[in-house]
Structure formats: structure tokens, C-alpha cells
Amino acid sequence: MDAGVNENALGSTPDLDVDLREYARPPLRELRGLIRAALRGEDEDCVADAELVVTELVSNAFDHGHAPRRLHVWRTGRPVTVHIEVGDSGRDDMPVVGKSRLGSARGRGLIMVSRLSRRWGVSLHRLGKTVWAELTCPAPHVRPAPTA
Fold first, then answer.
1. DSSP 8-state assignment for residue 68
2. Which three-class secondary structure state does DSSP give residue 107?
3. Edge-to-edge strand order for the sheet containing 128-137?
4. DSSP 30
5. What's the pTM?
6. Which H/E stretch holds residue 88?
7. Closest CA to 125 of 85, 98, 97
8. Which terminus of the chain, N or C, has fewer Cβ atoms within 10 Å?
9. Is 134 in contact with 118 (CB distance < 8 Å)?
10. Helix or strand holding residue 52 (H, E)
């Protein structure tokens, strides 16, 4: 995976920048590990939610979008906001909550994204689209030290 530097409207270098061009299928297991590493120290439930959102958005980019594809993740502020973006070069298949061109057994992923995220959306640009989601993480739960 290419871990390059990319700036966006958030005004900072992403905590995670993954070029997905070399993959014929989404490397979901590897991406979940990268998310856990990028969000180390954050609330465990929030990290798990971010893993699910990334899995869904990247899967959609492979199922409905076109190469090249790229994942960006930023972590900002307190409480922490996790901003996830997945870009691809397709503009013809826009995401629709609850519907999939791949059949009636599909189409539930964006329902999950909308419930796990504070907000989500799609930004069109000249070379394709970016599907993004924002999650707010509570302060991490600090486990008390064991007493003897």
C-alpha cells in the first residue's frame, strides 16, 4: 500500500493515506489493521465503528466506482472527530441509501454508515467522487489499574 502525503480541505496531512490502485479486490483485513493503528488510543467502540465505515465505503468504491481509488482518514479535535474519505474516479454510480444495483440482498451498508456516522455525504469533483463520513469519538475509557 502506498502511504503518500495528501492535503485536503481539512487543512492537514491525513493520519492515514492509502492508495488502492494496486488491488483488484479491496484489502479489507489490511485496512482494518491500518485503521486500528491510525486511531490507537481512541475509544475502542469508535475505532470499531471506523473500521466498519471504512470497510463499507472501500467495498462500495470497488463494487460501484472506478480506479484509481484512495482512502484518507483524519483525526481532529477533542472530542475527536474521525473524518473518513474514499475517492474513486466514477461519477455515474452515486451512492443511494438502501439500494444497490447489485441486487436486493445488497444495499444495507450505507444504512449502517448513516447510523454510525455523525454525518456523511458525497462530493463530486472533476475526476470522480469522494464518499465521506464523520464519526465523533468519546474520550477513551480508562481502565483502572488492578489492585492487589
1. -
2. coil
3. 16-19, 70-76, 80-88, 128-137, 119-125
4. H
5. 0.82
6. strand 80-88
7. 85
8. C
9. yes
10. helix 44-64
